[in-house]
Description:
Layout: H1 3-8, H2 13-34, H3 36-51, H4 57-75
Amino acid sequence: MGLITGILTLPLAPVRGVGWVVDKVRLAAEQELDDPAALQEELASLERARSEGRISEEEFGQREEELLAQLMAGRQ
């Protein structure tokens, strides 16, 4: 980038910075959603909630299916 271009596009620097931050947050969120360890921990937490009676069997079954589907999709 030349000096003139840099000076003329300087007012756009905050917009580019926000775009960069949004991209990094999006990438981190995608990685966390696909992380098998995080999904397994969530499954364990779900099991504890069911055994403690904080959620119903039906709610447990639905959420468990979703988490297992995510886990299988991540492994493929």
